[in-house]
Amino acid sequence: MGQQRIAITRELSRSIGNCQLTHLDRVPIHLERAQAQHRGYVRALQAADWEVISLPEELELPDSVFVEDTAIVLDGLAIITRPGAASRRPETKAMQKELAKLLPVASISDSAQLDGGDVLVLGKQIFVGMSSRSTHAAVTELAELTRLLGYRVEAVSVEACLHLKSAVTCLDPETVLINPHWVAPEVFGAYRQIEVDPTEPDAANCVDLGSKILHGAAYPRTRQRIEAAGFAVEALPLDELAKAEGAASCCSLLIRIY
Ligand code: CIR
Q1: From the CB of residue 44, how many other CB atoms can be counted at a distance below 10 Å?
Q2: Which tens digit of pLDDT belongs to each residue from 98-119?
């Protein structure tokens, strides 16, 4: 049985210099370099046989390249988030329209906040990071929306980083890449764990494309650990996007349709 693999991305906004920042000081972002890095990212998705739907640039929305935060995609349901940063909430509109062409769509209500970067889905288990961007009310809503589809939802404490997926992402559905200083490894006790190299605390964010892992080129020591565990890695220069606190996973929303 075939699987359709679709990645939604969005053209980098020329206003990215006005992005939200939580942990980093603002430094100039070199627009052409950031655009080139983003193009390289899109090419890597296409080379791995993902069909890319590229949404148009949103000049008024500086952070809109980071599409991961606007929706959660599950088997048979997409859930539009309500991003924690008010400036990012209008980003969900175009995503809702696009996702509705592909699968049923539900939404987080106005009484909750959720960034997609806080949501790690491992099979039927959903972990939600309690970062500054996401609330317990969103965890309750997610649980209600997904219970009938067989998902379990668990809130997870995170420290010193923007999102849960800054601290942990998956290499495959049974294996996580983790910074144990930012999220408690015990939470992921049921999974095989690869720890980031201690000199590369930001290296826990990656994208599992099925055939390979996309990872930032700035983390060679962690890459060695991932490769030693048997995974193929494509290392991409993403340092210009990292100045906006963006990493590999946040630049795409991956949809597998069976
Ligand atoms: C923000 O602070 O919202 C953006 N500057 C960065 C968002 C990165 N998103 C992600 O890692 N999922």
Answers
A1: 20
A2: 999 999 999 999 999 999 999 9
